[in-house]
Structures are given as C-alpha cells and as structure tokens.
Design a protein that fits this description.
The complex is a heterodimer of chains A (116) and B (117). By secondary structure, chain A is mostly beta strands. Chain A has no helices and 12 strands. In chain A, the strands form 3 sheets. In chain A, strands 2, 5, 6, 10, 11 and 12 form a 6-stranded mixed beta sheet that branches. In chain A, strands 3-9-8-7 form a 4-stranded antiparallel beta sheet, with no helix packed on it. A two-stranded antiparallel sheet of chain A has the order 1-4. In chain B, strands 2, 4, 5, 6, 9, 10 and 11 form a 7-stranded mixed beta sheet that branches. In chain B, strands 1-3-8-7 form a 4-stranded antiparallel beta sheet, with no helix packed on it. In chain B, a hairpin with a 7-residue loop joins strand 9 and strand 10. Classes of the chains: A mainly beta (116), B mainly beta (117).
C-alpha cells in the first residue's frame, strides 16, 4: 500500500522568507501523481501544486515550487516570499496513475505559521 | 473552474437522529465521489468511494449501515449519518472527480461540521 509521510507537524516562517515542507512517500508504482494541498482555517482544500511522476522537471506555480526526487521518493514544497495568507495546514498527497479513479492518499499534514 | 457545493456547512443534531449531507457538482459531471472525515488538526481519512449508479465502496472500519452514501446522479452525492451519536461529531468533506478532466482533477467541497448533542 502507498503511504505518505510528512515529518514536520509544525513549521513557522517569517513573512517574506522562504520555507520548505518535507514529504516522502512509498510506492511500487511507476505511474503516479503527487500533490500539495493547502487547508486554511476555512478548511476548504485548495490545490497548490501537482507533479506527474513521469516528468523530470520540477513543478512551479508562482511562489510555490517542488523538489521532486523520484529515486528518493521525496516531494518537498518550497514557498518563497512567504505571505500571511500562506498560513495553513499543508497536505502532501499521492495518487496512482491510470484511469481507475483511485483515491488520494494524504500525509498527516504540516501546520505552517507565518510570522509578521 | 469546477465547483462542488456542499451543504450544510454546519449542523447540530440530537443523538439518535439522522443527518444528510449533500455534495453537488455545479458545472461538471462527477463520476466518482470520495467522502472524507477529518478530526481537528488531523489528516483527511477516506471513508468511502462512490461511483455514479453503483454501490459505494467503504474503507475498512467504516460502518456502511451508519454512513449511507448515495450517488444517484452525476451531479449529486449524499452522505447520511444514521442514528448519530456524539462520537460521530466531526468534519466531513466530499471530493469529486470529473468526467473528461485530466488525471489529477479533484474538486473538494467546503466541508460540513457535524455536532451531535
């Protein structure tokens, strides 16, 4: 079974600084997708960024980027120029590839605090 | 973009009564709906997966007779918590996967906070 591990229950960063959230996963599949979701206090799940396993290039979305290390099964999220609105719970998630409609497997989450 | 409307956002019910939570896909057809339960400051725990027109597949340890899931149409799925008890109090979230979207297409509802008194 696939597992996703986030080893940092809590992280904090100063506004305008950079922070990296860690995620590792375990799978025997070669085709899969990885995601970072943000859950602010409203508890609405928001997709931050996604990565297809077959792509070697790391995904980037504005201030958010990932460091995808497929061999190490590592998928960290870097937030640059942190803003107060980035404060949230961040979840790393895995999904098997293919068209079977398989579920997302979530990590335990990292609570990010942004200090002014 | 794709939107899933989840109602109610908050509900308080008496112990022993049933509560229905609805998730509607507003601008797309949801072939698959996932129902999650989330405790405070914890991760999302998958309860069940439902495909339109089929019976839901429940995760191990989830009581199918207590958490009734219906996915009768491509735009509506419901979760009914039957004979609710205080231990059922939690935050419930639905997530839909759409026909024709790329393989990463998941859309989440805004969640329902259930309090059983």
């Amino acid at each position: 079974a696939q597992t996703v591990t986030q080893s940092q229950p809590e992280m904090s960063v100063q506004e305008a600084e950079t922070v990296t959230l860690s995620c590792t996963y375990d799978t025997s599949e070669s085709d899969y997708y990885l995601f970072w979701y943000k859950q602010p206090p409203s508890r609405q799940m928001i997709l931050v960024i996604r990565q297809e396993a077959y792509k070697q290039q790391n995904a980037t979305e504005n201030r958010f980027s990932v460091n995808f290390q497929k061999a190490a099964k590592s998928f960290s999220l870097k937030i640059s120029d942190s803003q107060l609105g980035d404060a949230a719970m961040y979840f790393c998630a895995y999904r098997r590839g293919g068209t079977s409609g398989s579920r997302l497997t979530f990590g335990e989450g990292t609570q990010l605090t942004v200090n002014p | 973009g794709a939107v899933v409307s989840q109602h109610p956002s908050r509900v308080i019910c008496k112990s022993g009564t049933s509560v229905k939570i609805e998730c509607r896909s507003l601008d797309f057809q949801a072939t698959t709906m996932f129902w999650y339960r989330q405790f405070p400051k914890k991760s999302l725990m998958l309860m069940a997966t439902s495909n339109e027109g089929s019976k839901a597949t429940y995760e191990q340890g989830v009581e199918k007779d207590k958490f009734l899931i219906n996915h009768a149409s491509l735009t509506l799925s419901t979760l009914t918590v039957t004979s609710a008890h205080p231990e059922d109090s939690s935050f419930y979230i639905c997530s839909a996967r759409a026909i024709g979207t790329l393989n990463y297409g998941y859309t989440f509802g805004s969640g329902t906070r259930l309090t059983v008194v």
